[in-house]
Amino acid sequence: MLCLCVSLAALVLPHYAAAQYNCSAALQRTPVNDDMTVVCGPQFITMTVNLCTALYAGFDPTGLAVNSRQNDSQCKGLIDSTVTPPVIRYSLPVNGTLDNICSNSIQIVNEGAGTGFLSSFSSIQSVVISGYIDTRQSSSGLISYSTDLYYGFSCRYPLEYILNNTQIITSSVSVAVNGNNGTFISTLSMKLYNDSSYTYPLSVPETGIPLKTKVFVQVRASNLTASFHVLLDHCFATPDPFNMTLTERHDFFIGCSKDNQTTIIQNGDGLTSQFRFDAFRFLQHRDRKLSSIYLHCVTRLCQPSTCKELKAVRLCQRHRLQQRLSDTGLGRRVIASCDAVPCCNRAAQ
Hints:
The chain is mostly beta strands. It has helices at residues 15-20, 51-56, 304-327; strands at 2-6, 36-40, 44-50, 65-66, 78-80, 87-93, 105-110, 125-134, 149-158, 160-171, 188-193, 214-221, 229-238, 250-254, 257-258, 262-266, 272-278, 290-302, 333-337, 344-348. 10% of the residues lie in helices and 38% in strands.
């Protein structure tokens, strides 16, 4: 989203500058919203401003800066005269929002309850990064008779994604992650390893990997601001590539509940989350020599404090569940729960 504010005072074109940048007569007009473009990328927010209309409005292109930071070179644009019309280019690193050198506004907003496979989320969140490009203020006080130029911009990034269709083949189940269903999705990766140090990628022979082989899974955010941690809400496997109509799946964990053969190593404490499970096969593949399983993880990007709160809620839910089982006098029942790292298996008497 962007907006433009410019006064309607009489404007004089600096002809020498327009000729220098090869500005056409069609651009001898006041700036409009279309003179600015904004691309909200996973690593950078890139913007361009039409240089010629800024010149026609009587402004020095080198004086346009992000959020009035004219004295900071990192917040000023670069003139590109190799394109037609020439533009002023700005590039703001998304992973620089922690330092926030150019003082952009950064807000976490609630978008309402999730839908589809994210329906288990009571609140879907986005991070909104916004700011403006303007000229140095022409005068101080209450009113002015000089022209100012102001472009507003805003980028909205969803914070919930599903990483899907990572395939494993075993013998009696290389790794690729498909899809790009969100602005930050390209910064997220799911990789499989065959060692607890997550050093050696899982190697799958043509005959598949033996059942009960320990498979180590890592979901990592790369080139993303440290303002967010990676929290896995739900990881599961299916016998076929993911779609919303699948009814057969094996859950590794959902929030606090997990499968007994799954161990969560770390989750929600940084830009990397890890767990491991024992290789298995789906019974519907009993007539096949090789069985395929597809891994999927519903992933949340949250601020460190929010991730900590979510994990605390899960811890409380675990204790309440254990207390209910104890109070009702149920027989011995195994409760596999996770709250922090590492997760633990706990038996309720």
